[in-house]
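Hi R.,

Here's the chain you asked about this morning:
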Amino acid sequence: MQGLYAVFRKELCDHFSSYRFVILFAVIAMVSFITSYVVGIHMRQNLEALSNTKFPFLMLFSTTGTLFSMVQFVAFFGPLIGLVLGFDSINRERAHGTLIKLISQPIYRDAVINGKFLAGVVTISIMLLSIVLVITGFGLAIVGVVPGIEEIWRLTVYLVISIFYVSLWLGVSILFSILFRSIATSALASVALWIFLSFFVSLGADVVANTVAPVNQQNAANPEAVLRNTRIKESVGLCSPMVLYSRATATIIDPMRKTNRAIVLMGPMEELLASRFQNPLPLSQSLIVVFPHTTALIAITLICFAISYTVFMMQEIRT
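And here is the predicted structure, written out as tokens:
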């Protein structure tokens, strides 16, 4: 346990004292400030419409600013935090010859990988918590909106999901740092996987859906054909962690969202019930809606770290 704490403390100090952490945090904080400021000014100019909203404070995170909302920003660029923190965590030690010296100390090998991962998770948590608190301060100062109890709980759930999401990419970068001895190769592989899973999977989902269940001029008016095409597209899109995270957090931040599906086929009775019940979902029901996506995201994060742990424990360490 002492070895784990020593590695954890050393890695945490390295993260907070490194220039890349300062630059990355400054860029993310600047974008968060600008986005929240633009949203806050827009909300202050529409106070009359804001008074009719049941959860106005959450709009600071879900409303699109200049380019994107805070939720969309974390979904697209949050993985860069995990990738930057872990792409050279192991092979840097190998290149400098400090890994064999570290293992020769009274420190178990598993304490090295566990300490590095825990230090990265704590760093990610501090960064995301700081951003949420800053946006909260902007909301109080610019708009004068005080968050309610349910809004605070929803932000807490959103923060936990975000930490697991970014930690997933931290585990991916640590895995590539173990597999590749070159720091440049591990960084390139991490970024390539992020680009593929975040952007090209969505394009592939469109291709698969249009191939298996095409929607053309003949069946464009058929709701079942359109629904089948959409379901295939959504099912393939779930292979992307960004899609899992976006759907889960969008439902948590926006209580008016009652489903994660893009299209829902409703009959006359369903339309009548939907028109009568326009109230926002309570937090417990929103958690039930996002439970499959959140569970899959957490499971992928743990599996990725488990693979990194196994590979590192089985790998030979040479001078």
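One quick note: The chain has one domain: 2-314.

Cheers,
M.
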